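Subgroup meeting minutes
Present: P.N., E.W., G.H.
Scribe: E.W.

1. P.N. recapped why we're keeping a running log of single-chain structure predictions: easier to compare across weeks, and new members can see raw inputs and outputs side by side.
2. G.H. added today's entry (162 aa).
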Amino acid sequence: MRHREISAILVIGTLLAACGGGTGSSDPTASPSCGPPPAVPTPFPAWLNSPPNGSTNVSRDVGMLIETGAEEPGQNGAIMIAVTSAAGAVPLGAPTSAPSPLPSPFSTSPPQYSGPYVAIPLPTLAPNTTYTVSDNYTGWANNPPQCTATITQFSGSFTTSQ
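Output recorded in log:
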């Protein structure tokens, strides 16, 4: 009989501890917080220079896209460029310096976009397909316990030819 009483006390004690008996907070209404955002500016999305945003009949073997601001760091790391279509993500090569002379057609960046032109190598693309170019970076998000999130910014889109 004594053994059952001790077992029952141990089970009840374990259940109480598992139900928040050790949170360390005396305020049951307190909620976790991520605190204030870091003092780092949100980056502008990179500007799609080539092929220009909205271009159609882009060659399937264009070979690269060129952006301004693509190397600007986000709040917790570098901007990652993504090119996607309805079929999924396109594998990209490592960013390099843009060629000289710059390819044509070419869209000049507005003044608020600074930094060098960056070339991102592309494989041969599918015909008659619209591709979206976006920039992803890790930014602050006050959503405890997740205090960061992947932020996606649209840079532009283009459609390939036959």
